[in-house]
Amino acid sequence: xxxxxxxxxxxxxxxxxxxxxxxxxxxxxxxxxxxxxxxxxxxxxxxxxxxxxxxxxxxxxxxxxxxxxxxxxxxxxxxxxxxxxxxxxxxxxxxxxxxxxxxxxxxxxxxxxxxxxxxxxxxxxxxxxxxxxxxxxxxxxxxxxxxxxxxxxxxxxxxxxxxxxxxxxxxxxxxxxxxxxxxxxxxxxxxxxxxxxxxxxxxxxxxxxxxxxxxxxxxxxxxxxxxxxxxxxxxxxxxxxxxxxxxxxxxxxxxxxxxxxxxxxxxxxxxxxxxxxxxxxxxxxxxxxxxxxxxxxxxxxxxxxxxxxxxxxxxxxxxxxxxxxxxxxxxxxxxxxxxxxxxxxxxxxxxxxxxxxxxxxxxxxxxxxxxxxxxxxxxxxxxxxxxxxxxxxxxxxxxxxxxxxxxxxxxxxxxxxxxxxxxxxxxxxxxxxxxxxxxxxxxxxxxxxxxxxxxxxxxxxxxxxxxxxxxxxxxxxxxxxxxxxxxxxxxxxxxxxxxxxxxxxxxxxxxxxxxxxxxxxxxxxxxxxxxxxxxxxxxxxxxxxxxxxxxxxxxxxxxxxxxxxxxxxxxxxxxxxxxxxxxxxxxxxxxxxxxxxxxxxxxxxxxxxxxxxxxxxxxxxxxxxxxxxxxxxxxxxxxxxxxxxxxxxxxxxxxxxxxxxx
Length: 662
What we know:
Elements: H1 6-11, H2 14-17, E1 35-37, E2 40-42, E3 49-53, H3 61-73, E4 78-82, H4 86-101, E5 108-112, H5 116-122, E6 128-131, H6 149-173, E7 176-182, H7 188-194, H8 198-214, E8 220-225, H9 229-245, E9 253-254, H10 262-278, E10 284-285, H11 296-305, E11 347-351, E12 368-371, E13 376-379, E14 385-389, E15 402-406, H12 407-411, E16 420-423, H13 425-430, E17 439-443, H14 450-457, E18 462-466, H15 473-486, E19 493-499, H16 504-520, E20 526-531, H17 541-554, E21 563-566, H18 577-588, E22 595-599, E23 614-620, E24 623-628, E25 631-638, H19 639-652
Parallel strand pairs: 3-4, 3-10, 4-5, 5-6, 6-7, 7-8, 9-10, 11-14, 11-20, 14-15, 15-16, 16-17, 17-18, 18-19, 19-20, 21-22, 22-23
Antiparallel strand pairs: 1-2, 12-13, 23-24, 24-25
């Protein structure tokens, strides 16, 4: 029996494998070959394309056409429609004709999972087909299968025989193909041989790509989606590395699957997609939200447009060898200073330097509620530290937080108490105040010279506040971390980003990428976000605090609330996902750390739920199947009882607590 150890595979030829983008410091798009999808080019010199997927029943021609038009008018450049069986595949021709008659020439994509005959039909009718190599030919039963090399080769040959007819049809009709791997739906064969890893995801796709290449078919786009942004980023990076190794350069379709809705869905999508776009990876993107499909387009456009004028930017010191493994998460080792660094969860620093701090109620916006009668504070996702600058509060702060003042102001405080100073580089190097022990030091990469490095080496009580003014800020801050690793400096680092001149939509996207992309690589012991005063009316302090906790949750580095893994809906969906998700959220949103998957059908069922604790899956009209992890607990129960049964299941496992207001 053969079983690959993904970690061993990833350490072979390490220097080559670490090369997953053009540069870690200079923004540059990774050049892929151009693939034409109808009249829309993906890859090559084309801009990043934006696409989405309909949620209607494909057999409802009018509804699907109407939704497609709404998507196109919102800016969608490629429309995907599910084709779960042959009849839906045939109806794509009717839908296409009606769209063309209405004056829309946007290319269509048939989304295929279990039905090769539907794919072969659709490939003759629309501009692109998407297949999932995890279930296109194989069937997933969550079985572990033992293979020797010969048996595994025989399985690959079986796939070749079944898949080749579709390849030849696509080649004949000029149809593009997306080979789209999903982390949660890797086949039992891949899982048994390669494990539940990014390496398994990549090999799942490349098996099919190699068959295409043998047929001299190259009109291929690849994707590596997961609901866990960490896994998603690692898989895409590894895919690029493996493609380079095998002389391939196919375009990438980026997406975080089952991202959910609202703020959380946007944060998780931006964290995954944005991290890759920062390194110049990605040729087309889809943001998967549990909302009406046209609402996905502005989010995707906000992500893509950020990089149109990213280069040129102020130069960042190049790096020859990446000091970390970009395909496997490892948190940077750091000292613990107070409750920051080492194994502590990342802290949140709230900026209250310009806030009115005259009453206890002013801390409500950062998660602290004061009860005057008992003279006690309660906390709910409360900021760990309060940056006050030169702004002293008119009341005693909660003992669970500590204020941070600018150094010169802090020096003059008659009673410093638990307060901490924030020093700039000059103040830190001057070292004229020997009474300082614990302190924050604000630095940027250009300030990290030999004098600072030498002092940090001997200072075990300094927390770095890392700033950047570079337009390519994530790369500059990442380079700072690389330098700390090179110099073996382990002071904890809180990442600071400043924003001005952005919209409320951009506010959800930009910080999610800028902070989240660093946490993906194991960098950062805290977050500190500063808004230009002109934005405070549109984006208040409460929103900033909530979003920062949301980013840490999406990066899986600090869990502060329930996580919902909800698919975005499509024509296969068996219930209203938006209403059902909201109904479940209303009953369970107080369950900190519990992950609940809400899936519209079995295609996005146990596999796509990936690492969820519980699953709520449509299994027939008005019927729901409940899962604990990937195991079925109750089959096909009436939908009107399903949420109550889900809560009963959570109670049985001892994970239920009553809401605070009950």
